[in-house]
UniProtKB/TrEMBL annotation, chain A:
It is a peripheral membrane protein. Residues 7-254 form the ABC transporter domain. One of its GO terms (cellular component) is plasma membrane. The keyword Transport applies. It comes from the Bacteria. This is ABC transporter ATP-binding protein. The keyword Metal-binding does not apply. InterPro entries: AAA+_ATPase (IPR003593), ABC_Ni/Peptide_Import (IPR050388), ABC_transporter-like_ATP-bd (IPR003439), ABC_transporter-like_CS (IPR017871), Oligopep_ABC_C (IPR013563), P-loop_NTPase (IPR027417). It comes from Hansschlegelia plantiphila. Belongs to the ABC transporter superfamily. Keywords: ATP-binding, Cell membrane, Membrane, Nucleotide-binding, Transport. One of its GO terms (molecular function) is ATP hydrolysis activity. It holds the Pfam family ABC_tran. GO terms for biological process: peptide transport; transmembrane transport. The lineage of its organism: Bacteria, Pseudomonadati, Pseudomonadota, Alphaproteobacteria, Hyphomicrobiales.
Automatic annotation (TrEMBL), chain B:
The keyword Transport applies. It is a peripheral membrane protein. Pfam families: ABC_tran, oligo_HPY. It comes from Hansschlegelia plantiphila. Residues 6-257 form the ABC transporter domain. This is ABC transporter ATP-binding protein.
Length: 330, 337
């Protein structure tokens, strides 16, 4: 049994001008100890998916339907009291902006210790000693002194380390990381990605990483889910996704990202673009969600939504053409 | 030698800090601390570096949004660093800017038409209403927006479209050079590619120079001619794209390049992970400013500040390692490509 199974998740928001279908029937699973990346652009529903798993969507205006099974239990059906026992313990989360997700008026040792006092019943002294241990684990120099400091006294990279220490304090089985390195500089990003890889081996938690950066995906993920306009359009093991992307959107994304060392010629070059913009999620989309920007669009794409189909072992794509590709190959 | 379009000589930009409760010695943030570069007509020079290195401050000083503490900014042969604001006005037409955040850089209560017409009116670039309308339509065509968008409000557009409006507004003044301060950083991958291509096309078509300030090295490599790498208020290396990206001669450049995540799971990774954080520009380290994090630092680096010096034609680096014989220089043994 997978650790987490997201099954036909729909998270919709009621707005004054219609229902926003932020996540519209998305399914995937995460195995114990694996790293799954959910990748996509702004508004594709990747963060809302993460928030839905944590049950952090305000209801109303939001509403999640479908099932989110964690170790077999449907999180969407749990009473809030039970959910609170899971948050920060079995499932924890780190966010993009470490400055706004830390409490500015509490010392960081206290913030890290809080979840251990709550979930593991440690007293204040024990929790603060454990917090210093966690700070050591995430590589903060002088952990004892730092645990007595406030968030504003730390740099961005150190704050993100503190967030990670907080998230790992209760040895979670699943760590959800929503754009954990997006706000950081490249040299600090490299430190944090390195830390996450290292900790995954040591702590053994499964990681669900939400990102828009295909470079980050290639660095840390075992498997990848590609989302577009609230739907999953492709899913594959990481090597396969980069080597043989099946969905035109994935291919477009990969082509649009310049690679270091690929354009050293004298003149500036052109990047592959995906023309147009993401469709509004407030109108029901008939047919394929990517049809309005797809270079390979045909009549059938506008009329019928393509089903997700297995194109190879563990490799799913929702595209009418990817199906034909398989027939041609046969 | 013909003059460069933009020349910056020994630019310094120091910001005073408050004196604190008991007065004491006035302290400064040394945001930009003595740097020089040139931008030629039709050329893109990119300034790269991490947060707080001073790259945006350079942009602002060049635009004269800030008055430099010391040094010269020469635009088209005319010194603008010490000009009065009145004298500066006609010069402002020649150097325009596109900012990072397309949501906060457009006035939400001004229609696109009026936002674009403003620079034309200010600088007297259209003699009649008909000429202005013709120019407005041409601008929309240039940046790839429909002409009817002129009558709409900023909130009606997506991030990428707003950035196109931002570019159109910069172009409306018919400048020689545009400062792009992280102009594509906030955009999604697919839209970023559109805007990068647009800037490239406009440069070709109009012979524009670009001062492209960015932390995104892959994008920079893609669209630039030359690159300056900044660290703690100084240029540590400057050269052509090929020199900087294929044969870096400063350990910081080497580290930056190695830190960029490669969108390919099978790519070989030779990552140099730096220890610690960037030191504070209030109290920069003595000697070489990078020595506290440099994997190759030796005694001389802690006491003597290296100067930028030419390591090959058109390529300058500020590192003591380059004084050593080639076989003893780790920067040369690990050369890429």
């Amino acid at each position: 049994m997978p650790l987490l199974e997201v099954d036909r998740l729909q998270t919709h928001f009621r707005t004054p001008d219609g229902v926003n279908r932020a996540v519209d029937g998305v399914s995937f699973s995460v195995d114990r100890g694996e790293t799954l990346a959910v990748v996509g652009e702004s508004g594709c529903g990747k963060s809302v998916t993460a928030m839905s798993i944590m049950r952090l969507i305000a209801e109303p205006p939001g509403k999640s339907a479908g099932e989110i099974r964690f170790e077999g239990r449907d999180l969407l059906k749990l009473p809030e009291r039970e959910m609170r026992k899971i948050r920060g313990a079995a499932i924890s989360m780190i966010f993009q902006e470490p400055m706004t997700s830390l409490n500015p008026v509490l010392k960081i040792g206290r913030q890290i210790g809080e979840s251990m006092r709550l979930h593991q019943g440690l007293d204040r002294g024990q929790a603060e000693a454990k917090a210093v241990e966690m700070l050591t684990l995430v590589g903060i120099p002088e952990p004892k002194r730092r645990s007595g400091e406030y968030p504003h006294q730390l740099s961005g990279g150190m704050r993100q380390r503190v967030m990670i220490a907080m998230a790992l304090a209760c040895s979670p089985k699943l760590l959800i990381a929503d754009e954990p390195t997006t706000a950081l500089d490249v040299t600090i990003q490299a430190q944090i990605l390195d830390l996450m890889r290292d900790l995954k081996v040591r702590v053994g938690a499964a990681i669900l990483i939400i990102t828009h950066d295909l470079g980050v995906v290639a660095e840390v993920a075992d498997r990848v889910v590609v989302m577009y306009a609230g739907r999953k359009v492709e899913e594959a093991p990481v090597r396969q996704l980069f080597a043989k992307p099946r969905h035109p959107y994935t291919r477009g994304l990969l082509a649009a990202v310049p690679r270091l060392g690929s354009s050293l010629g004298g003149r500036p070059g052109r990047l592959a673009e995906i023309p147009g913009i993401v469709p509004s999620l407030k109108t029901k989309i008939e047919g394929c969600v990517f049809a309005s920007r797809c270079p390979e669009v045909e009549e059938v794409c506008l009329r019928f939504a393509p089903a997700l189909e297995a194109k190879a072992a563990g490799h799913l794509a929702a595209c009418h053409h990817a199906v034909r590709g398989r027939e041609e190959a046969a | 030698m013909s003059a460069s379009l933009l020349e910056v000589n020994d630019l310094e930009m120091h910001f005073p800090l408050g004196r604190g409760l008991f007065g004491g010695v006035r302290r400064f943030v040394y945001a930009v601390d003595g740097l020089s570069f040139r931008v030629e007509r039709g050329e893109t020079l990119s300034i790269v570096g991490e947060s707080g290195c001073g790259k945006s401050t350079v942009g602002r000083a060049v635009l004269r949004l800030l008055k430099p503490t010391a040094g010269q900014v020469v635009l088209g042969g005319v010194r603008i660093d010490d000009m009065s604001s009145g004298a500066l006005r006609p010069m402002r037409r020649r150097i325009q800017v596109v900012f990072q955040d397309p949501f906060s850089s457009l006035n939400p209560r001004i229609r696109v038409r009026d936002a674009l017409a403003e620079p034309m009116n200010n600088f007297g670039l259209a003699k009649s209403r008909a000429e202005r309308d013709r120019k407005l339509n041409a601008l929309m065509d240039k940046v790839g927006l429909p002409r009817e968008a002129l009558g709409r409000w900023p909130h009606e557009f997506s991030g990428g479209q707003r950035q196109r409006i931002g570019i159109a507004r910069a172009l409306a003044a018919e400048p020689d050079i545009i400062v792009c301060d992280e102009a594509v950083s906030a955009l999604d991958v697919s839209v970023k590619a559109q805007i990068v291509n647009l800037l490239g096309d406009l440069q070709q078509e109009l012979g524009l120079a670009l001062l492209f300030i960015s932390h995104d090295l892959a994008i920079v490599e893609h669209m630039t001619h030359r690159v300056a790498v900044m660290y703690l208020g100084k240029i540590v290396e400057i050269g052509t794209k090929r020199q900087i990206f294929a044969r870096p001669r400063h350990p910081y450049t080497e580290t930056l390049l190695s830190a960029v995540p490669v969108p390919d799971p099978d790519a070989p990774r030779r990552r140099i992970i730096l220890k610690g954080d960037v030191p504070s520009p209030i109290n920069p380290p003595r000697g070489c400013r990078f020595h506290t994090r440099c994997p190759y630092a030796f005694d001389r680096c802690r006491t003597e500040e290296p100067r930028l010096r030419e390591v090959e034609r058109g390529h300058e680096a500020a590192c003591h390692l380059n004084d050593r014989p080639a076989e003893d220089n780790p920067l040369l043994s690990g050369a890429r490509a």
